[in-house]
Amino acid sequence: MTTVITIAVGFPLGYFFLRQQLMLALMAARLDQAARIDHLTSLANRKTFFEEAEAIVGSEAFREGAVLFIDADHFKSINDTFGHAIGDAVLQEMGSVIRNSIRERDLAARIGGEEFAVFLVE
Predict the structure, then answer these.
(1) Does the active-site annotation cover 122?
(2) Which of 31, 57, 63, 116 would you call most buried, defined as having the most Cβ atoms within 10 angstroms of its Cβ?
């Protein structure tokens, strides 16, 4: 419950505190997302992948599935030859191709440097 307290200039102090609470909640949500999503590819990160895969397998609706591990061989040579900006662009494109190639019920993640995992759920 918010009680509105008016200070000398007539500004409702209660609204200030409500605004602060909303901003804190928004920041907490952004931090939670940053902890669960790979910032470069916008896919789930390793921790999120295994947590969500475990939850899917443990659900009563789960029947079967398959896990794909995708690794870009010799990726270090891309960074060494063309620089990290190009290497990052390659990883972003790989993430985009993976995301656009799976169904909504599937789970994709970047689990390491140039390693991706996809959990295909039936």
Answers:
(1) no
(2) 116
